[in-house]
Amino acid sequence: MQGRGIRRQCNRILYDDGGPNANYRNSANDSLLLISPSGCGVSIQFTQFSTETNFDFLSLWQISSSGSSPLGSFSGSFLPNSGNPISPGGDSLLLRFSSDGSNNAAGWRAVVSCPNSFSVSVSPANAVLCRGGSATLTASGGPAGTTYTWNTGATGSTLVVTSPGTYWVTAQAPSGCTAYANPAVVTPHSPADTTISISGTTLSNTTCQNPDYNCTWYNCNTDQVVGTGSTFTATSSGWYALIIENTATSCRDTSNCHYIGTTSIMPPFSSADLLRLYPNPTFSTSRLEAAAVIEVLRIWDTQGREVFSTWPRASFYDLPSLPAGTYKVQVMLFGGTPASLTWQVVK
Question: Which of 52, 90, 187, 201 has the CA that lies 20 to 30 A from 274?
Fold first, then answer.
């Protein structure tokens, strides 16, 4: 860099030292180095050019690690390269201007750009993470062959996240030019109030009066839908629960199961009997029933190894067929109540 050594980046409008409304200085002897980010290239296109012919010269040089090479010297009133972009093929371009001091002129106006630059974005910019669910972020932008690297270390144009947080991506084109997207924010779902009021055989929930929620009542034992809306009146004895869906996020919250007795039939579970597993022992599989919605289910063998896990979100679940042995079945019921029992598989 010589002269005043001003350093500019690309995607700028460039004027001579007189600016847009004045002539350049007499006896000017200046150099200007234009540098773009690595791999993004640099290009200059003149839209105005006026110097003292054969006395005041603007010279362009391509700069690289191996040295410099001239791209042309221009004087007079003709647009350099006939007004077409001048692209040296690298990331640096040197302008050198000299005036003999006798006369001056309007000078030049040029647009400096990065021909290989691009933009990248991530969608959605804001996502809601449902409980136990995931959100998929997608990066786009850039020429063919662009690679994407997320702040988690993952690569690829899509990222599946299971934790709230801020996520961003760095994109790199085959030329080496790099672009950065605005961060995407993933926030946790705000649970709806699933409190159920019971009056006789009628169950109700105030959240379901809000039109932003869809509410479905179901039978905890059969897993069948039995009603919709903010209230439900049972016509037969059983355990009933409510699913509340947020229409904006599609996230769901499930209430505890509540027993409604319409006859003298007693509920299938007592307060001390949270789980029921049958048949046990079994030759293949067994059904697990609970007095409340099963949020998490895990199965462990006698070596303390977890052999199965799932999120049923129902009051019953058919256990998978496992090799012969004795297993511990552990569950976390709605509301955080833990329960466990022993399961035996024989062949």
Answer: 201
Pick from 326, 329, 324: which is nearest to 275 by CA?
329
Indicate if the alpha-carbon torsion angle 204, 209, 210, 212 is positive or negative. Answer: positive
Is 1 a member of any domain? no
Separation CA 130–CA 345 (nearest Å): 35
Residue type, 215: C
The answer to whether the predicted template modeling score (pTM) of the entire model surpasses 0.85 is no
Give the C-alpha separation, 305 to 250, whole Å.
35
- Residues 137-155 have pLDDT tens digits of 999 999 999 999 999 999 9
Residues 6+ apart with CB under 8 A from 222: none
Domain assignment of residue 270, yes or no = no
| Spatial contact of 205 and 215, defined as CB atoms under 8 Å apart | yes
Q: How far apart are the first and last CA of the chain?
A: 83
pLDDT of 256: 83
Domain limits for position 12? 6-113
Task: Compute the 3-state secondary structure of the chain and give helix, strand, coil in percent, each to the nearest 5.
Answer: 0, 50, 50
- Per the domain annotation, does 335 fall within a domain? yes
Does any domain span residue 265?
no
